[in-house]
Amino acid sequence: MFAKQYSSLIAEMERVKSLTKLTPEERKEEEEALEKPQKEREERERKEERTRKQREKHQEEKRIQEVKQRAEEKRKTYELKALQEAEQEQLKQERLHYKKVIQVKEKPGKRPRCTIEDLKEEQKAELCGPLREVIPEDPVIFHRSDATWIAVQGSNKSDEDTTGDN
């Protein structure tokens, strides 16, 4: 390294000697000629630095965009999964409700087969006699109204005709 500095120093001293022998215009041209490669090199380095910074900026923007895209995809995936789970839960609840309804309908013996109204109708029928024995010409017709039997007499016939003693 010392040799490199020494040779650089010698080159600089020779340049100074040569510049002192030259006229001011020649010195200016010589300095410009010596500085031209250095300026070109510096310009090239600045250009490379700008290009490198632009490339890094572009890569950083690309990475940020990719991160955002992955985050959005994850969010959508989680939302879709949550929606599917909610639908599955709803279907499960509906099935459970349906099973409960079916079980209630299928359970025998929970409700009596004959109601109080059926019992009252049967008792009235026994008191009045069997309904099948009622003669169609008989003016006494039995009607059901609010779980009670009402006998309605025909308009033309009398009570003697309804007894069936003819």
UniProtKB/TrEMBL annotation:
<feature type="compositionally biased region" description="Basic and acidic residues">
    <location>
        <begin position="34"/>
        <end position="71"/>
    </location>
</feature>
<feature type="region of interest" description="Disordered">
    <location>
        <begin position="1"/>
        <end position="71"/>
    </location>
</feature>
<protein>
    <submittedName>
        <fullName>Vicilin-like seed storage protein At2g18540</fullName>
    </submittedName>
</protein>
<feature type="compositionally biased region" description="Basic and acidic residues">
    <location>
        <begin position="12"/>
        <end position="27"/>
    </location>
</feature>
